[in-house]
Amino acid sequence: MTRALIVLAVLVVTTAAAPQPSPVYKLEELTWPRIAEFDRERTLFILPVGVLEEHGPHLPIAADTFGVMYEANRAAQRVSRALPGWNVVMMPALNYGNGGANQLGDMLVHPGTYQIRQSTLRSLVADIGGQVAQNGFKWIFVLNGHGAPAHGIALNEASDFVSDTFPVTMLHLTALFRADPAIQERGDKMRARFFTRAELDSIGMDVHAGVSETAGMLAVRPDLVRSTYRTLPSQSGKSFEELRKITTAPGWQGYLSSPAKATAAYGRAVEEWWIDGFTDLILRAVRGENMRSHSRDPERLPPPVAPVLEKALANEAAFEAKLDAWLAERRKGR
Prior knowledge:
alpha/beta
């Protein structure tokens, strides 16, 4: 009995002494007085950004948003355990982004893609980050689930604007993730556990609704993956030129690489890679590393794809001009 009491006492003391995980809050569930109480130096905000974009005949159009929300929530939990005494605030996800893969096929408008202009995305993220900054909070992290270059550039520019204008750190983590050599090496090793070199060569550029994204959805939301993914023929391209031939061919179904090779196990590994990377980048930033000195991807439109995306951006500018002209005429009549 005495030994049992001693063991119990040790457990109680150990538990009491162990640092407790920081709270993870949902911003939309908080009252303003509660937010105002947060320590400005030891509170970080996480803003997930996705898109509504066609993802082939087998995946939901919000696949990117589902993926980044899963990653953001789990990264937030890990950060909370690593930073006792901090507040971790999850912001509602932005479901609208810029640039659908349909643009690769010269389809500027598509029934599965609902995007906003690059300028709108830049302004939206700058507005949100700027208000966090003007309320005195010092740390804002953008986690992005969509790979379109113009979309990523808008998030870089919005984050840089807020960081340069206010005494805060706002970082687009996905751009850092994609350019970090150590994180990318871990990704290469992860892929090598599931596929041989010959299999990876046959998959080609796995950039949209293919093996990785299908596998990720099988891990995160299998209920939304149509079983027909198993019968989809491979559409493998090893260069941008080859991808263009696929996407501009009549009847392109909106996916690339080989969805049929996807497995939930591979998807779980992919998601863990992203979660580990996001957690690592957040902790490095708040512990003092100057992440703005690091390379990012993208910093500019990649040369091979630039002409295609510039056409899409010109179309957005024309739409914006129409809106401005309409507003000017409307105001004249008042």
